[in-house]
Amino acid sequence: MLENYFSVLIFILIGVAMGVAPLVLGRLVAPHRPDKEKNSPYECGFDAFEDARLPFDVRFYLVALLFIIFDLETAFFFPWAVVLDKIGWFGFGAMMIFLGLLVIGFIYEWKKGALEWE
Amino acid sequence: MYNWLTDCVFYVAAALLVVSSLLVITSRNPVRSVLFLVLCFFCSSILWMLLEAEFLALVLIFVYVGAVMTLFLFVVMMLHIDLEKLKTNFVRYLPIGALIVLGMIGLMGYIIAPEHFSLLAPAHHGADYSNIKELGTALYTHYVYPFELAAVILIVAIISAISLAHRGPRGRKSQDVPSQLNIQRNDRVRLVDVPAEKKE
Prior knowledge:
The complex is a heterodimer. Chain A is an all-alpha fold. Chain A has helices spanning 6-29, 36-39, 58-82, 84-112. Chain A has one domain (2-112): Methane Monooxygenase Hydroxylase, Chain G, domain 1, CATH 1.20.58. Chain A is built from 4 helices and no strands. Chain B has a domain at 130-163. In chain B, helix 1 (2-26) runs antiparallel to helix 2. The chains are: A mainly alpha, B mainly alpha. At the A-B interface, helix 3 and helix 4 of A face helix 1, helix 2, helix 3, helix 6 and helix 7 of B.
C-alpha cells in the first residue's frame, strides 16, 4: 500500500527543499552584518509602541470552534462515502441519524445568532 | 529497497517528532511552540502512514493541523501570556508537577505493555489495500452506536462553545421584520396636545 504514497514522499521532499534552499542560500551567499538597529522591529521609523501580541476578540475563537466541529463531521463522511455500497441502507440510516443530530446543533447555532458577524 | 526506504522514513520522522516535541515545551515564544506542535503532528502523521493507517494519517493533518492548531493559535494570541509570571512559582509547583508526570509515565507504561515495543513492522498490504474501506465497514456496522454517540458529543461541543463564547448581538444593524410589521401607531408617533395661543 505504501508504494502508492511514494510520489507523495517525493513531493514532500521537493517541497521542503524548495522552502529551505533559498533560506540556506541566502544565509551562505548574502552578506550578513546585523546590528542593533537592523534587528529591532520596524514600525514606520518609530520605536515599537507595545507588544505585538494584543489579546483579541473571543468571537474568533467561537468561529474556529464551530469550524472544528463541522470539520470533524466531514471527516466522518469520507469513509462512509467510500463504503456506502457495502454497508447498504443500515449505514445510510446511521449517517442520516448522525447528520440529523448535527443539523439540530446547526439550527441551534443559527437561531442563537452565533454565525452572524456584527 | 522497500524496507530500506520505509525504515529510513520512519527513523527520520521519529527523530524529528522527538526533537520537535522537545522544542514545543522548551521554546520561549508560545506561538513558536504551537508551530512546533504542528511539526509534531506532521511527523506522527507520517508514522501513522507507515503503519498503513492512511485515513487516520490524513485526518490528523486535516483536523489537527487544519483546525485544532488554528484554535490553539487563537487561544495563544487571545490570552495575554506573561512569561515572567509563569516562571515565578516554578520551584513551588515542581514537586507536584514531577509527581503527576511520574504517575502519567507509570500509567502509560502499564497500558502500553512491553510486548508492543518491537522493531518489527506490521505486515505490509498490497497496492490495492484500502484502509478507508476497512475502517468504514467497521465503523458504520459494528461500531454504529459509538458513531452516533460522537454526534451527540459534537452537539454538546456546539452548545457549550456557544454558551461559553457567544455574547449576543451588540449594536448589530439588521432588520427585525416581525417587530417592524407588528408596530403600532402609538409606538412611532407621539401626538402632543399644544394649547392654542390667543392672538394678541
